[in-house]
Write a structure and sequence with these properties.
Elements (H helix, E strand, L loop, with lengths): L1 H25 L4 E2 L5 E2 L13 E4 L24 H9 L3 H12 L14 H30 L2 E6 L2 E6 L8 E5 L7 E7 L5 E5 L1 H4 L4 E5 L10 H5 L3 E5 L11 E5 L4 E4 L4 E2 L4 E3 L3 E8 L5 H4 L11 H35 L12 H16 L6 H18 L14 E2 L11 E6 L6 E12 L2 E4 L11 H5 L2 H10 L7 H22 L4 E5 L2 E5 L3 H12 L2 E6 L3 E6 L2 E11 L7 E7 L5 E7 L1 H5 L11 H23 L3 E10 L1 H15 L5 H12 L4 E12 L3 H10 L3 E5 L4 H10 L9 E4 L4 H15 L7 E8 H7 L5 H10 E7 L3 H14 L3 E6 L5 H6 L2 E5 L6 H5 L2 E3 L4 H32 L1 H8 L10 H11 L2 H9 L5 H6 L16 H25 L14 H23 L5 H21 L15 H6 L2 H27 L4 H10 L11 H4 L3 H17 L8 E2 L18 H7 L11
Parallel strand pairs: 1-12, 17-29, 17-33, 29-32, 30-31, 31-32, 33-34, 34-35
Antiparallel strand pairs: 1-2, 3-10, 4-5, 4-6, 6-15, 7-13, 7-15, 8-9, 8-14, 10-11, 11-12, 16-35, 18-19, 18-28, 20-21, 22-23, 23-24, 24-25, 25-26, 26-27, 27-28, 30-36
GO molecular function: ATP binding; ATP hydrolysis activity; magnesium ion binding; phosphatidylserine floppase activity
Cofactor: Mg(2+)
Keywords: ATP-binding, Cell membrane, Golgi apparatus, Magnesium, Membrane, Metal-binding, Nucleotide-binding, Phosphoprotein, Translocase, Transmembrane, Transmembrane helix
């Protein structure tokens, strides 16, 4: 019965949903435009990119099929794994080659090494690679599930239900609570705030630190409880999914009512967070990969390959052609030898058809020589990379205890790439900064004050405030108001300035207070304003109440009410914000805060007839404040200047009429408002300045300095404002004070081209060098700069600058900037960020780093590696990156070396075997060479070798530069040097034993051996030589490396002793019977064991000795200093390295030359050289809801709706 009842309920719900859709379709009203008229029901003309979608409210079963809300950043799905994995594996030429060899070995009588010697290892390699990819991709799926399984309240079946994000469907009505992310793209219906406003934080989308205001349409603002929402019958017609974050066009069609237009102000985007708002109701319109967030990211994770992989892939192709040439020559020589000897060797049956014989011999030699390309290399690389990734995951030094977040290698294919980075592209908000503003210091009346330390988070006690210097000055000055002493009068005047300054901090803002449990929480769209009000509270000037007409503050325990008359809002062009208010005494005052450059030019001019004493006093006040501003800026603090003036009643009334006329003007309204503001914002009196810290993540300046010292170029790509971006550049020491700033803010392609070309000309011959100049460009200008016309000129200009900061950029622009470097520079790029807006650049860069441990995990899920803090990037690159790069270079070179040493001997032996394709070594010995006898040394050097310790690499970032990596650096030239060296060694390892056994008598009793005995001689010497070669290139000796190197030699001797006695007990290795006794009883063998490997490696030892003595690399010198227990940093003071330090002097000279040339074109080039005063202020601009609307809407004395 229960099952039947459940099915009946499901059927009823489905029927109700269908009827609901039908009713919607029958009762739609005409569209109401902004002026109240109506228009046809034809689809809007802006839907040109695809069909518009129609979404029925409260109906998760839509008539059209939309994407679900499940998102994935993983590489593979269950169905795509096999084709994508095989595609990725067979992009490697070596795997294609071995597949061909494995197929050729299946042809009867062709393979001299058996049918399975290549196929079985190839299957093993693919299996290991598949297992590694599965393990890594499972981690990505789990990270995706962490997001997809978050829960949100959805209105279904007449009640609110908590469901997972992935189950949210288009048409659902959802309830989102404060400080939570939006699960999909929503249209705002209503909220807990007055006039259905809501505050959202979009730092995860565009990097901006200020909150943005969204407001529901008045027709839906009254939907404040469940019953009203359930009875709401409407649909939303909107544009198809697109990636434009700030654009949205839609129509809300409500049953039996006129339809209304929807725009960006009603759109709540996935990835944004609800702030300062208890709850909102919204309709889901885009889900999953249709959301604007996901539209700005690639839908699937790219298949990235390391630079070493690409390099080796190319060299393997070259080796294949060489191998093919050798095989063709060997087959030709076989034909020649056969023709010359077929009559005398008739018993060998050499009379077969020559064409057929040539073809079979060619295949035989291809199979015989195929191991010139090491099949074991791929499986060794996979194992080593997987373990290296485990080392990264287990590094306790990159574990962040506060968030319980370790480092995570989400892919191991790029481990060595971490040691080759040349460019780092970093986001600002959440990556370099904490997105937390804190009031630090202030300058009032020419005197500096530090912030008092409160006793708790919200309230400062009387003891705290009265013990601070500022409060003491106020209290002391007030007590001296009636004194006739000049010094006391100055103190009284200063106290009045302090009091007015603190009043201004408490009143001149758009903050909303909320009282919860006898404490006050401040909500603000501007983080700067919240920091200022919080700072004033710590001085015991508490902002307490806001109503549409007045505010109340508690100043040193006294309740004061100020009537807010006018608000002149902040814009980037004005760089200031003002409030006109009426004081409790009835006076009208204007309070103005902003950049020092705009405040100072609006101060009351100093009268010429002012006495010298007064002149000195005024000048000191202003000049001292400027000095304080410069000091604040040098510390990387955000500064604001504060000034005020009293306005006569009649002057204010005349201005008020003028301002009202400007505000309702239909023509040139903005200019008229600006002119009206200029009339009132004049003849101000300077009060002081504030310093706000945009708190950096731990050790950010130190990390950036280390990256710069390692010859890594650091570019900041942020969606935040230009002033904020520049300010952070100073605070994190990326920009130094006195460094010229090239600022490009142009409004057209032609102007952008002109400026970029002019600045390139200014550099002259230094354009190809890096100059001590910072380039700052905004997002709109960047669009022009990245166009085809001037793209390469812009790249040259960026390359000539030491610092590049791109501000107000979109996620796609971030990816385009990264692509500019990856596509045109032979450099390894790294992108690091924490937000969803960073995913595109993370996926575009060679290496993507995500900041995890924060609420938004989109960047971490899409990254190749995730860390909890920016500071861990230093250890990830300098320690793990450098170690892995050095290890992988040695592993790759050594793998080719050891294979060529053994398998080219078959070529030398072919000369003596009539080019017959006969093998010199026993088959099992050949098969076990890479698997057993020489497998351990490359694994050991790939996992445990290190030139310098972690402490040395972290202390001396210059060691990271690839030019200092010494013999661990892998290039085409070095690769072929190793190949030629291996060929030379293989020749010695064959011909020297052959000459020692030339008379074919190796024993005193006159016995001799066959070709297999020669093979065992040579094989032994090869194993000893290649293991000794490993000993020469391993720098860090541990018991593991000793066991791997010397244990491999012992293992061969044990093998030959045991294997030579298998037959007839086991039907294996009959040809090896007794070879151990013959081998070990030969004096020639033991003498050769000492002399031949020594002779072969003598040249290598000599070259190493000369290189480490005469042409010693900085890395090698640092290692030697470590061994001697002296300071590794001493290597940077020697003459060889000191020459590189003259680079700084060259840069300074370049800058001087640049500005010498620039002076001739100063009118055309905008370069800021003056000392920065650190102005920065975050506030939303251009929204339909103004800051005036916000403060006029709130009455904090009234309760808020519950939304139930």
């Amino acid at each position: 019965m229960e099952v039947a009842a459940t099915k009946l309920v499901q059927w009823f719900n489905e029927l109700r949903s269908r009827v609901h859709l039908y009713l919607h379709a029958q009762t739609l009203g005409p569209v109401r435009t902004e002026n109240g008229g109506s228009q046809d029901d034809q689809p809007p003309t802006q839907y040109i990119d695809g069909e518009e979608r129609v979404i029925f409210v409260n109906a998760p079963h839509q008539p059209a099929k939309y994407k679900n809300n499940h998102i994935t950043t993983a590489k593979y799905s269950f169905l795509s794994f096999i084709p994508l994995f095989l595609f990725e594996q067979f992009r490697r030429y070596s795997n294609c080659f071995f597949l061909f060899i494995a197929l050729m070995q299946q042809i009867p009588d062709v393979s001299p090494t058996g049918r399975w010697t290549t196929l079985v290892p190839l299957i093993f390699i693919l299996s290991v690679s598949a297992l590694k990819e599965i393990v890594e991709d499972v981690k990505r799926h789990r990270a995706d599930d962490e997001i997809n399984m978050r829960e949100v309240e959805v209105l279904r079946d007449g009640r609110w239900q908590w469901i997972q994000w992935r189950a949210v469907a288009v048409g659902d009505v959802v309830k989102v609570h404060n400080n939570t992310f939006f699960p999909a793209d929503l249209v705002l219906l209503s909220s807990s705030e007055p006039q259905s406003m809501s505050f959202i934080e979009t730092a995860n989308l565009d990097g901006e630190t200020n909150l943005k205001i969204r407001q529901a349409h008045p027709d839906t603002a009254n939907l404040l409880d469940t019953a009203e929402l359930m009875n709401f019958r409407a649909n939303v017609q909107c544009e198809p999914p697109n990636r434009h974050l700030y654009e949205f066009h839609g129509v809300l069609r409500e049953t039996n009512k006129q339809s209304v237009a929807l725009g960006p102000d009603q759109l709540l985007l996935r990835g944004a967070m609800l702030r300062n708002t208890r709850w909102v109701f919204g309709i889901v319109i885009y889900t999953g990969h249709d959301t604007k967030l996901m539209q700005n990211n690639t839908t699937t994770a790219p298949l990235k390959r390391s630079t070493l992989d690409r390099l080796i892939n190319t060299q393997i192709l070259m080796l294949f052609f060489i191998l093919l040439l050798l095989c063709i020559l060997s087959a030709i020589f076989n034909v020649i030898w056969t023709n010359a000897n077929k009559d005398g060797l008739w018993y060998l049956g050499l009379q077969e058809e020559m064409t057929k014989n040539f073809a079979f011999n060619l295949l035989t030699f291809i199979i015989l020589f195929n191991n010139l390309i090491p099949i074991s290399l791929q499986v060794t690389l996979e194992v080593v990379r997987f373990v290296q990734a485990t080392f990264i995951n287990m590094d306790i030094e990159m574990y962040h205890a506060e968030t319980n977040t370790p480092a995570m290698a989400r892919t191991s294919n790029l481990n060595e790439e971490l040691g080759m980075v040349t460019y780092v592209f970093t986001d600002k908000t959440g990556t370099l900064t904490k997105n937390v503003m804190e009031f630090k210091r202030c300058s009032v009346g020419g005197k500096l004050y530090d912030l008092p330390i409160p006793s708790n988070d919200h309230e400062s006690t009387s003891d705290n405030t009265h013990s601070c210097e500022l409060i003491k000055d106020i209290v002391e000055g007030r007590s001296m108001q009636d004194s006739s002493n000049s010094i006391d009068k100055k103190k009284a005047e200063h106290a009045a300035v302090l009091h007015e300054f603190m009043i201004m901090l408490s009143v001149c803002h758009t903050v909303i207070p909320e009282k919860i449990d006898n404490s006050i929480i401040y909500h603000a769209a501007s983080p700067d304003e919240r920091a200022l009000v919080d700072g004033a509270r710590k001085f015991n000037y508490v902002f307490d109440t806001r109503t549409p007409s007045y505010v109340e503050i508690i100043a040193l325990g006294e309740v004061l009410r100020y009537e807010i008359l006018n608000v002149i809002e902040f814009t980037s062009a004005r760089k200031r914000m003002s409030i006109v208010m009426r004081t409790p005494e009835g006076k009208i005052k204007i309070l103005c805060k902003g950049a020092d450059s705009v405040i100072y030019e609006r101060l009351t001019p100093i009268p010429l007839e002012t006495s010298d004493l007064d002149q000195e006093h005024v000048d000191d006040f202003r000049e001292v404040t400027l000095e304080h501003l410069e000091m604040f800026a040098s510390e990387g603090l955000r500064t604001l200047c504060f000034a005020a003036a009293e306005i006569p009643e009649n002057v204010y009334q005349r201005w008020c009429e003028l301002y009202h006329k400007a505000s309702i003007s239909m023509i040139n309204r903005e200019n008229m408002l600006e002119q009206a503001a200029d009339l009132i914002e004049t003849k101000l009196t300077l009060l002081g300045a504030t310093a706000i810290e945009d708190q950096l993540q731990d050790q950010v300046p130190e990390t950036i300095q280390a990256l710069l010292q390692a010859d890594i170029k650091v570019w900041v790509l942020t969606g935040d404002k230009q002033e904020t971006a520049i300010n952070i550049g100073y605070s994190c020491k990326l920009i130094t004070h006195g460094m010229p700033l090239y600022i490009i803010n142009e409004s057209s392609l032609d102007k952008t081209r002109e400026v970029i070309i002019q600045r390139c000309l200014d550099f002259g011959i230094d354009l190809k060098c890096q100059n001590d100049v910072a380039l700052i460009i905004d997002g709109s200008t960047l669009d022009y700069a990245l166009s085809c016309d001037i793209r390469m000129d812009f790249l040259e200009l960026c390359s000539a600058c030491k610092v590049v900061i791109c501000c107000r950029v979109s996620p796609i622009q971030k990816a385009e900037v990264v692509d500019l470097i990856t596509s045109n520079k032979k450099a390894v790029t790294l992108a690091i960020g924490d937000g969803a807006n960073d995913v595109a650049m993370i996926q575009k860069a060679h290496i993507g780093i995500g900041i995890s441990g924060v609420e938004g995990l989109q960047a971490a899920c899409a990254s190749d590696y995730s860390i909890a803090q920016f500071r861990f990037l230093k250890r990830l690159l300098f320690v793990h990156g450098s170690w892995n790069y050095s290890r992988m270079c040695k592993l790759i070179l050594y793998s080719f070396y050891k294979n060529i040493c053994l398998y080219v001997i078959e070529l030398w032996f072919a000369i003596y075997s009539g080019w017959s394709g006969q093998i010199l070594f026993e088959r099992w010995s050949i098969g076990l060479y890479n698997v057993v006898f020489t497998a351990a040394p490359p694994l050991a050097m790939g996992l445990f070798d290190k030139v310098c310790s972690a402490e040395t690499r972290l202390a001396h970032p210059a060691l990271y530069a690839t030019k200092n990596n010494g013999d661990s650096f892998l290039s085409i030239r070095i690769f072929w040097i190793w190949i030629m060296n291996a060929l030379f060694h293989s020749a010695l390892l064959y011909w020297l034993p052959l000459m020692a056994l030339k008379q074919d008598v190796a024993w005193g009793n006159g016995r001799d051996g066959g070709y297999l005995l020669l093979g065992n001689f040579v094989y032994t010497y090869v194993v000893v030589t290649v293991c000794a070669k490993a000993g020469l290139i391993i720098n860090s000796w541990t018991w593991v490396t000793h066991l791997a190197t010397w244990g491999s030699i012992i293992l061969w001797f044990l093998f030959i002793f045991i294997y030579s006695n298998f037959w007839p007990v086991l039907n294996v290795g009959a040809v090896m019977l007794g070879n151990d006794k013959m081998l070990f009883s030969s004096p020639v063998f033991w003498l050769g064991l000492i002399l031949i490997p020594t002779a072969v490696l003598l040249l290598d030892v000599t070259v190493n000795a000369v290189m480490n003595t005469v042409w010693k690399s900085v890395t090698e010198a640092a290692r030697e200093n470590e061994i001697r227990k002296s300071d590794p940093g001493e290597v940077f003071s020697n003459q060889d390295y000191r020459s590189s330090l003259t680079e700084t002097a060259r840069l300074l000279k370049n800058v001087k030359n640049v500005f010498t040339r620039r002076s001739n074109a100063a009118s055309r080039v905008n370069v800021e050289v003056e000392l920065s005063h650190g102005f920065a202020f975050s506030q939303e601009e251009g929204g339909s809801v103004t800051q005036t609307d916000v403060i006029r809407a709130y009455d904090t004395n009234l309760p808020k709706p519950g939304g139930m």
